[in-house]
Amino acid sequence: MATSKFTFFIILFLLGLTEKSSTASRINSRKSCNFPAVYNFGDSNSDTGAISAAIGEVPPPNGVAFFGRSAGRHSDGRLIIDFITENLTLPYLTPYLDSVGANYRHGANFATGGSCIRPTVACFSQFHLGTQVSQFIHFKTRTLSLYNQTNRKTPFCKGVLARPKDFSKALYTFDIGQNDLAIGFQNMTEEQLKASIPAIIESFTTAIKLLYKEGARFFSIHNTGPTGCLPYLLKSFPATPRDQYGCLKPLNNVAIEFNKQLKQKISELNKELPSSLLTYVDVYSAKNHLIIKAKNLGFVDPFDYCCVGAVGRGMGCGKTIFPNGTELYSSSCQNRQNFISWDGIHCSETANMLVANRILDGSISNPPLPTQRACKLTENVVGKI
What we know:
Layout: H1 2-18, H2 23-28, E1 38-42, H3 50-54, H4 80-87, E2 107-109, H5 129-149, H6 155-160, E3 171-175, H7 178-187, H8 190-213, E4 218-222, H9 231-236, H10 249-272, E5 277-281, H11 283-292, E6 320-321, E7 328-329, H12 349-360, E8 365-366, H13 371-374, H14 378-382
Parallel strand pairs: 1-2, 1-3, 3-4, 4-5
Antiparallel strand pairs: 5-8, 6-7
């Protein structure tokens, strides 16, 4: 098994080195792919409507630039996960929590805004990673049961259900951890927060192993971005030391340490879990590049943001207030494509697209494997299970 896995990674490395494609071909590629489905886990950076379904709609102007409506996303348009599914020629992911018009034939999205990796009362959402994995296990169990019960009289059911054989061939994506660090930073010192990282990584490891036990084999794991560069936090902690780029130095130090330990754990899991591929995706470097090279890339001040509240920066994007019985709405800027940050916390569609480009071409991944190459290896790996 060790020799087989070593050979497999050599193939991945060589394929990664030979892949060359333009931005347009990466995003608009319509080549056939062997990933029949995508299952996503995360927070608001990849939530495609769970919070809207569970608590209340993410209101306009969120989403209107691309979807013409809010579409449950904290951005003016598409998220990174949307660009990934587009590239794989799959539909946008239906949130697991949204029962209206749901179609799970090609995957489901368990990401929920405000979620953390670890369960904690301080987190913005009760749908931490452990809960999301439990939802997936329930989803899979119910899917298998319903799929076996359907017959010729109810063919439409199978048209919207995930196919049992696809669970082991699907891509499992993760974008979570930002809230663990951001919330921790507001309640702990830098050293205390660093000391909590091993426990966070352990919770993440437990989730991966549970999914592996359920048949998951292909994992694309995003590290956390430069949380200390979020405009909202910069305004909330004006006295905190800045680094050379103007970001919160202590918080980015913690993010770097978190990513270091996450990468090491993924390396260990690749050796521990047979016939699997766990890809570490360095989103931190991609987002940090946007901030450092903002002007060269055509962006305005990287610490400014587009969607502002009706009464200024103190009110979140899309929310309403009722001072003296008057309903007020937030608004977005006219040149939203020139902003990295959409609302002070989440990226604009333009920034999401630029980061997605680098994920899809494999340039920030370890192993350096383009997504379109990885999906063509599913049958080889699944065949070894």
